[in-house]
Amino acid sequence: MVIFKDRKTPGIKGPKEIEGKNPVVAPQGFWVKCPECSEILQQPKVGENLDVCPECEFHFRISARRRIELLCDPGAFVEKDTSLLTTDILEFSDSQKYPDRLKASRSKTRLNDAFVSGEGKVKGRSVQIGVFEFSFMGGSMGMVVGEKIARVFDRGTKKKQPVVLVLASGGARMQEGIMSLMQMAKTVAALNNFRKKQVPYIPIFTHPTTGGVAASFAFLGDVNIAEPNALIGFAGPRVIQQTLSEKLPPKFQRSEFLLEHGMLDGIVHRKELRPYLDRVLGFLMD
Ligand SMILES: [Zn+2]
């Protein structure tokens, strides 16, 4: 490995770097500055506005639980697969040991892993729903997240119910190596089985959706929709720019760019997501 000894570390960083302009979670505290328009806002007003800036419509990142609250009928969500726990099969360690990272993310999010799923209702219609939690290790997909997604599709198949997945992920979880990449095939296999029932699968892309998640089940929806200005792609724009040594077009890999280039079917404002889902599911199922 001598040949690698003098190589500089490429300047590629983790999910925080690829987030670009909006690395922001839903604000805490009374005052908050919008990262897009720099307006100083009152947090309760932002919260009332579904964590969207009332001045410029910037969509703050929200937790998986809040997302479920916004999409499902009140009290209708029943969470599933809460007891699955991953293991450190590679005894992986970078600047921190994998079990330490898991422990920190678990105490921060109060979740066992980066995905919340279960059965809910959207305007009275039963759906299988799953939501990524980006605050848990960048929403990365390891064995537990992959298994939970496969189970969402399996329940959808068994009950002949539509599947809605809300995506926010940096991709496969590197700490689980090949086992995390295997989840790409597993989730797609479960989706393929689900398709035989001819009920819809609707992925909702939120900021950011990249890597192994974008490259597996994410884009295989019957109607692919995204929130405004979400970063969506396989490799992040910084990696592509460094590889190609070319300047990328403005808004490259953002929702609006993808819609223009035929990769998405629609961009839906957070306020419109629930009625949009209701309309699309009604159109495809009734
Ligand atoms: Zn704003």
Structural features, described:
With 286 residues, this protein is α/β, with parallel strands linked by helices. The protein has a single domain (62-285), classed as Alpha-Beta Complex (2-enoyl-CoA Hydratase, Chain A, domain 1). The chain is 34% helix and 16% strand. It has 10 helices and 9 strands. The strands form 2 sheets. Strands 3-4-5-6-7-8-9 form a 7-stranded mixed sheet, with helices on both faces. Strands 1-2 form a two-stranded antiparallel ribbon. Strand 4 and strand 5 (125-132) form a beta hairpin. Helix 5 packs parallel to helix 6. The radius of gyration is 19 Å and the shape is globular. Bound molecules: zinc ion (ZN). Zinc ion (ZN) is lined by residues 34, 36-37, 39, 53, 55-56, 58.
Topology of this protein?
Layout: H1 15-18, E1 31-33, E2 40-42, H2 43-48, H3 64-71, E3 78-80, H4 98-109, E4 115-122, E5 125-132, H5 143-159, E6 163-169, H6 177-195, E7 201-209, H7 211-214, E8 225-226, H8 237-244, H9 255-260, E9 266-267, H10 273-285
Parallel strand pairs: 5-6, 6-7, 7-8, 8-9
Antiparallel strand pairs: 1-2, 3-4, 4-5
Helix pairs in contact: 5-6
Proportion of residues in helical segments: 25-40%
Distance between the termini: 61 Å
Small molecules bound: zinc ion
Q: What CATH architecture label applies?
A: Alpha-Beta Complex
The structural domain count equals 1
**Approximate strand percentage:** 15-25%
What is the CATH domain class? Alpha Beta
Spell out the helices and strands N to C. Answer: HEEHHEHEEHEHEHEHHEH
Q: Structural class, please? A: alpha/beta
Task: Give the assembly state of these chains.
Answer: single chain
Instruction: Let me know the average pLDDT.
Output: 91
